[in-house]
Structures are given as C-alpha cells and as structure tokens.
C-alpha cells in the first residue's frame, strides 16, 4: 500500500507502533476480500446495524429552499451515527487477528458508544478515552458506554477534548501492543488507519449511488457532509470521486475564525490549518507559529479537533473536495429548523452540513439536487441545547 | 562536543555514560541553565534537553507535566536555542523533541539552528526511520547525529536498518510503554542488547530511575543509561532541587563506573 495521499499521510509514530501497524495492514489486506470475513461483516451491517439506511427526500426542507434535498439517514444506524460502520469492520478484523482488547478515543461519545457496542457483541474487554470537557457535554453517551460494559477514562490533559483522548489512546496502545487493537474512530492517524476507516465507511456512498439512481435516474449535483476527522465525509464521497458530483466538506467555524497562540476559536483545519504532523499523519493542522497544536473549539464535540484526515486534506488541496465552514450559531439554527420541518433531530455535527445547504441553496453552487449526509441523531446533544437556551 | 568523542573518553576511563534528560524551560526558562550545570557538575556525561511539544505521545505523566509547565512558563523554539547558546558546559547536548516542531520551522532551518547553538544530536520519538530520509541527509551535512530508537518488539530487519542509519548512539527503549519511572527493568533488555549488531554505543532508556537499574543495565552490556523522569520528579517537587539533583546524579554515575 502507498502510505501517502500526495504529501499527506505517512506513519509518524513511536517505533513500538511499527509492528502493530504492519500487522494491521497485512491482516486487512488478507481479510478484506476473505469470504468468511465479508459475509460476517455484511450480516452484522444488515442485522445489527440496520443497513441499508434510507435516502430520505426532505420534502418540506426542499420546498422551503427550492432545491431537491435528500438526507442519507445514518442517524438511523444502531447507536445513532455512522460510527458503527467502522467499528463493526475494525472489531471483526481485530477478532480475526486474535486481539482480546479494544481501546478507542471519542469526542462526541458516538464513536465510543459504537466501540462499546461491538466490544459487548464480540466479547472484547473495552476501554474508551474521552476528554473531560467532552465527558461533561455528552453525558448520556458516557452512561451508554458504561451500560454496555466499557470502561470510560476521562482525560484531563491539554485541551481535554478528542485530541488529548487520542494522545492517551496512543499511549495505551504503545504499552499494550500485544493483545490490544486501537480502534480509531475517524480517517485520521497513521497509515493504514485512514484507508481502513474510509473503506469501512464507504458503504454509505455505495448505498447512495444505488438509491439516488433509483429515484432520480442520475447522480446528485452535490453531496454535503460535515467533517471533524472526516470519516462520514470520506465514506459518502469516496465512491463518487470519479463522478461529476460536487463534494463539500463542512467544518466547524465555531465562534469565529480567529486564533491566538494557544486557542483556535473554531475547528476548520482544512480551510485554515497549515501542514503539520499530528497523531501519526502529515495533514492540515491548527497550530501556532512554532508548531504547537492549538486547542480547537466547536459546539459540536465530534467536530472539535485540530487535525483532519490526510486523504481529505489531499482532496481539498487538489480541489476535488471543497472545504467550507459553518459557525456554531448557524449550526444551531439548522438543528432547530430540521427538527421542526422534518421531525428529525440531527446531531449538532450533522447540523453543520444542513446549515451549509440552507446558506448556499440560493447561490447556485449546489445545483438542484443535493444529498446531505445526516451522520447522526441529536439525542446526545439535548443537554447542550437546553443549557444554551437557559 | 561530539557524542562520539565523549564515548571515546569514557572508554579510556572504562566508564559507561550517564545521559540525563530534563525538559527545557521547566520550571521556567531562567532556571534551566542552573539545573544543567548541577547535573554536569555531579557527573552527567551527556545532557538531553527536551524542547517541549503540546502533544508528547511518547511521554508518561511526569514528562507531560514538565512539558506543560515549560510551555506555560514561555519556553518556545526561539528561546530554546537562545538558552542553549548561553550554556557553559563542556558535554554533548542533545535536542529531544517531536517532529512537528521541526517540520514547522523547516528541517533544514531547524537543524542549522541546532548546529549553531552547539547541539550535537537529535532524538525524535515520533519520527521512525522510514520517514526520516530528508532529515538524515540534512543532519549529515550539518554534522548532527540522528539517534533512532529501537524497542523490544522491533523486528530483526528493522533493527539492522536502524543500526545502519543511526549515528551518535542507538537508543534502546527498555519496555513497551511511555517514559516514566519504573519499578523493574525487563530482563529481556539483555537479549535486545545482544541482538543489535553495531559499532555504535547502545544506550538504554525508559523507566531507569535508580542505581540498581543502572547497574543491571551496565551488567547487561549497555554503554549508556538514559534517565529522565527521576530528575523531572525532583524538579517538580520544588524541594531542595539543586542539591537533590546532584545527589541522585552522583549515585547514578557511580553505577556507571
Ligand atoms: C454524528 C457525528 N457526525 C460526525 C462526526 C465527526 O466525525 P467524522 O468527521 O469522522 O465523520 C461525529 C464524531 O463524533 C459524529 O458523532
């Protein structure tokens, strides 16, 4: 496998992690086309995750904005987000590799929850690292993980969000390489993770291709997805890379696009980050002049990350994917509007994608048929919303 | 001073090297020179100075905390080189940092600044050999050693490649894990020391924190020991720091004789 996407990607990790990364790469190449592996995975995706998910025509929203808007309903995947597509694939791979223990980082708690589910289902000892700031704002997910037998470790270092949770998970992995699989939750980290996660999430885009052909007889003009690390975006984009479809990756614009020496008041690493090395990959990173990583900011915990997947960084650089951003306020408006118009409460992360379509529907750049990846449901965010409305 | 020169000196005296790590700027940039002086006076042969990075994934809680204190106290890349230029010790100095800080400056620029400041070697725990081609070339030109790490789980093939590309010494990570004081050092280190086929000195680090550890490693065939967290913990205690640093350094150095 090539380790790079243009200049992005690679394996910037401690030497201890080279053997497990190599082992993972070999196992993935061996099993990804293995009939036993694929038939089990497909069975889990159908009967456990509830795939395929609907491509829903959002009639009221379409009427309001004058273009055809479809929602890819990843919020209906078991657990409430697209994250399970990846955790099922990786956990099954870990099972085939003979691993006994799963570790993961989580931001919004959706990936942690999806890891807890597969940990319970497939019989792994499971531990999830979560920034203490995220523990506070996503409590229902913390409780869900515990119910499923997962130990949740609150991480109190650095910005106390996903960046620091990944640091801690990497330290755990370095210490327990033998029996442990690090189930990374997005298309980030050292090779081969960005590729493996993208492949397991590509089921989203493959389904959309078939579904949209059936109802429209053609591909959409645009696909819009939110991007934290970039897994739901890469998952829906990847099967369309060679087609004439505009791809928009919507990042968290947070409070404003401003930075100081320590803090970025947003999480728009594709749009504003500089090339750097974070969590094992060369990619676009929010960092200060010296290269110290900044604390990122977003109302959506799942988008609150200073880096982004290397393949998405490459696709943005070549212009194939258009990076854009939405502020906290715009995302909140979209959150409320979708709830009222369609009776669907979106995750705050996904609300960024909705908000971008609301904002740009008039501008013509989206065309007249748009698919939005509704990456998750909003139940986990109710506390955040209630607190804000007080 | 070149690292190789120091090892030759020690060989003549039939001594092993004590390599002392501290984080530059911990607890504040003004104190670091006096800490370095104390370590050298008490017998440290080589000083490894951490340039603090916000996300030190190879470090345990002790050095993470030191890194935070140093960044909070204002240590940055520029003040790091300034501080090193002002040091008046006659031992090899090694810069330990993470790759992003080098990448952001531009490798060539960073390595030139190292050479300028009198640094003799670089340790970058998140830069494995196969990502380091460019940096190795640049370091060669500037006469800076590239010290690569090997671990208990490193394959024989990688061991050979790393041994042939390293310069200065080979850094043997004693355990699977991150930096931090350990209770026991794995007996497997002896096997690893035996397996490495190189003329370069072999230094063992991670978890080495007392005289007993040092003596075990010397008996197992190490040419040097690297001690970090034990010093950093003393610095963090703020209690009689300089005299306690000297005391433990003397004791550890005794173990190298
Ligand atoms: C619902 C939802 N959408 C999106 C994301 C962002 O992740 P990614 O960019 O990898 O899809 C998260 C992350 O937690 C999430 O929970």
What does this structure look like?
- The complex is a heterodimer of chains A (390) and B (257).
- Chain A folds into 2 domains: 14-44 and 82-191, Rossmann fold (3-Layer(aba) Sandwich); 49-78 and 201-387, Rossmann fold (3-Layer(aba) Sandwich).
- Chain A contains 16 helices and 14 strands.
- Chain A has helices at 18-31, 35-47, 59-65, 83-96, 110-122, 132-137, 139-147, 162-175, 193-201, 203-216, 231-237, 269-272, 310-318, 328-342, 348-360, 382-389; strands at 4-5, 8-9, 55-57, 68-73, 101-106, 125-131, 151-155, 180-182, 222-226, 246-254, 274-278, 281-285, 321-327, 369-374.
- In chain A, the strands form 4 sheets. Chain A has a 6-stranded mixed β-sheet, sandwiched between helices. In chain A, strands 7-6-5-8 form a 4-stranded parallel β-sheet, sandwiched between helices.
- The N and C termini of chain A lie far apart (52 Å).
- Chain B contains 12 helices and 9 strands.
- In chain B, strands 5-4-3-2-1-9-8-7-6 form a 9-stranded parallel β-sheet.
- The interface between A and B is large, with 36 and 40 residues.
CATH class of the largest domain in chain A: Alpha Beta
> How many structural units, i.e. domains of chain B?
1
Give the ligands present. pyridoxal-5'-phosphate
Number of strand elements of chain B: 9
| CATH superfamily annotation of chain B | Aldolase class I
Q: Helical segment tally of chain B?
A: 12
Largest interface: A-B, 36 and 40 residues
**Number of continuous helical runs of chain A:** 16
CATH 2nd-level architecture of chain B: Alpha-Beta Barrel
pLDDT < 50 stretches of chain B: none
- Percent in helix of chain B: 40-55%
The 3D shape of chain B can be described as globular
Number of extended strands of chain A: 14
